[in-house]
Amino acid sequence: MPDLPLVYYGDNANAPYGVRDSDDIYQLTCRGVERLWAEGCDLVILACNTASAAALRRMQETWIPEGKRVLGVFVPLIESLTERQWGDNTPPREVAVKHVALFATPATVASRAFQRELAFRAIGVDVEAQPCAGVVDAIEQGDELLAEALVTSHVEALKRRMPHPEAAILGCTHYPLMQSTFQKALGESVKVYSQANLVAESLEDYLARRPEFVGSGTRSAYLTTGDPKRVSGKATQFLRHAISFESA
User: Fold this and answer.
1) pTM (2 decimals)?
2) Distance in Å from the first CA to the final CA of the chain
3) Cα–Cα–Cα angle for 190, 194, 195, nearest 5°?
4) DSSP code of 187?
5) Distance CA 169, CA 81 (A)
6) How far is CA 127 from CA 27, 158, 159, in A?
7) pLDDT tens-digit map of 166-176
8) Rounded CA gap, 92 and 95, in Å?
9) Cβ contact 218:240 at 8 Å
10) Domains and CATH numbers, the chain
11) pLDDT(178) > 70
């Protein structure tokens, strides 16, 4: 959706969230969502598995006002894995994949949110979760060799507990940048689920069904709690076109 105006908020001053406790993650996530509401965004996507896992349910149950929506990123992933839509409330059923490896931040693993949501929709699925400490920091610092070494080490650690996973979930929005390394370490027979395309397709479908959440904005904006110059440079490097951040 290249023509859709988006407001992006990067909490770079407090990242990574994956090593924080749940209350801290909740407070930081609420602060970021409020800043996006101030920009006129009625629909917010938590483009962070840790925030989605540790904060979203609490936010939805107690905090989000009428007329606003906050959605997470692992819902489309579970829809794809179980081959059923989120609104399908029929009882859990057998699915094709029985052995799933989950690679995520320590906070996402500790929340068990992925296993909880999966259990509502599927039965007989064995999930082995591997907390991948250090990978986000290495990616953020641009240290590709360290990131590759850490990914390989984490995959080897998981395979000692689950030698033959059928599918693997990259449960952090940084990890798709290392998808080829995960795939190589896991082996070609393992299907690797990466969120980026799944979330984009899900958002496109959501906005087609709920056009009132498209909003009236006419330009994209990029906000950061960190150093705008440094974050702009990193974003431009990753996306290969100029991105200019403002202070949030």
Assistant:
1) 0.85
2) 24
3) 155
4) -
5) 9
6) 29, 11, 12
7) 999 999 989 99
8) 9
9) no
10) 7-73+197-247 (3.40.50.1860), 88-194 (3.40.50.1860)
11) yes
The chain-wide mean pLDDT, for the chain, equals 92
How far from the centroid of its chain's Cα atoms is residue 245's Cα? 21
pLDDT band per the 50, 70, 90 thresholds, residue 149: very high
Cβ–Cβ under 8 Å, residues 158 and 165: yes
Tell me the per-residue pLDDT of 78-130, one tens digit each, with 9 for 90 and over. Answer: 888 888 775 666 788 898 899 999 999 999 999 998 898 888 889 999 999 99
Does 48 qualify as catalytic in the annotation? Answer: yes
Q: Which of 30, 41, 48, 132 is catalytic?
A: 48
Other C-beta atoms closer than 10 Å to the C-beta of 229 total 10
Q: Count of residues for the chain? A: 248
Region 214-238: mean pLDDT is 92
Q: Is the peptide bond before 5 cis (omega within 30 degrees of 0)?
A: no
C-alpha span between 118 and 147 (Å, rounded):
28
Residue from 191, 174, 49, 166 nearest 112 by CA: 49
The reply to whether 30 belongs to the active site is no
Amino acid 81: pLDDT: 85
Q: Which residue do the tokens 């974003």 mark?
A: 235
- How many alpha carbons lie under 13 Å from residue 94 in its C-beta half-sphere? 1
